[in-house]
Amino acid sequence: MAKQLMKVAFRLNEELALERLERPSKQWQGLTSIDVALLGNSKHFIEECCGAALDYRWSGDLEPYHQPVGLYSSQPLK
């Protein structure tokens, strides 16, 4: 269901959809949607919905036109 919702969100407004993936959620104790997907090992959601957001996360200020959001994981790498 989350994949379908994000696909619709990307079709309507890609920039807003990317921002939503990186926005901390009160329901998930400040985790972002990407963090929840990574912690839940949701490979299909990550593969289909998080590619652009993860690219921006890793490229940081190398993408001058795509600087919308936090771009840093709130979870330490294991």
Topology:
Layout: H1 2-12, H2 14-22, H3 33-39, H4 43-49, H5 51-59
Q: Can you tell me the number of structural domains? A: 1
Terminal residue distance = 28 Å
The major beta sheet can be summarized as: none
How much of the polypeptide forms β-strand, as a percent range? under 5%
Q: Number of helical runs?
A: 5
**Number of strand elements:** 0
Low-confidence stretches: none
The helicity comes to 55-70%
Mean pLDDT: 76
Output the helix-strand order. Answer: HHHHH
The gross shape turns out to be globular
SSE-based structural type: mainly alpha
Estimated radius of gyration: 12 Å
- The quaternary structure here is single chain
Brief synopsis:
The chain is an all-alpha fold and 78 residues long.
Keywords:
globular, mainly alpha, 5 helices, 78 residues
Task: Report on the architecture of this protein.
With 78 residues, the chain is mainly α. It is built from five helices and no strands. It has helices spanning 2-12, 14-22, 33-39, 43-49, 51-59. The mean pLDDT is 76.
